[in-house]
Amino acid sequence: MRKENMKGILTVIMTGAVMWAFIFAAVGGSGRPVSGSDSEKDETVATSSDICNWGLSFQKEGSSPVGNAAPSYLKQYDAYYIDEDGIDDKNIYLTFDAGYENGYTEDILDVLKEEEVPAAFFVVGNYIQQNPDIVKRMEEEGHTVGNHTMHHPDMASIADKEDFRAELEQLEQLYEDATGKEMKKVYRPPQGKYSEENLKQAREMGYTTIFWSLAYVDWYEDDQPTREEALNKLNSRIHPGAIVLLHSTSKTNSKILKELIEGWKKEGYNFCSIDNIM
After folding, report:
1. Is the pTM of this model over 0.90?
2. What is the DSSP letter of 10?
């Protein structure tokens, strides 16, 4: 897939995802009850055929957001958006989605190496095909390379189990061809779209599904946030147990990453490998 095509697809996809996140934050949910009550928060996906868009409601600065599916619901399918067990230890997880390469990933890897911080990179098929050396570097430097599917489709709309399986297994094969290693069984649904059936299918394949508890609009190549905008957004919403989603295509992310990591270290946060959750 050409870079220009992939960029266009990702722009449409992520615009929709963030519009959903903003709507969710504004109204407090996706039509399902979300409040401080444990019983209400456990009311999540209604049926296995429902297609859901991952969304978050940030209700208090420095505190965990409320997802449109409760951690207890997701956990039964080996799916997570936050590390509840790591809250007391202030564990956090850096994750990067990589749909294409535009020159910033190696700068990001340089900072992670200097700061001795592990990360997870969720890659798609064309990324491995076009950047095998970068993918090998990710693996060699101790990062987790996760499955973001072969073609970045709406996985929740795939009804056939074999088609669902093929999206993950084809990427596994590309990764093994590029690195000589088996891909770790960690998966992030493209677009943040999922269904109960998707979660079951991923679990049956041995996968842990990873959503996120902190993200911001960082993927528009020609409309990048300023340093101040990025730091203000990320620093105001960081929280113990956070799974942070960033995009490796972001110039701003490559410029602020060292400052961001150093600041979070000073606040007592521990950067952990996503393997802890798996």
Report:
1. no
2. H
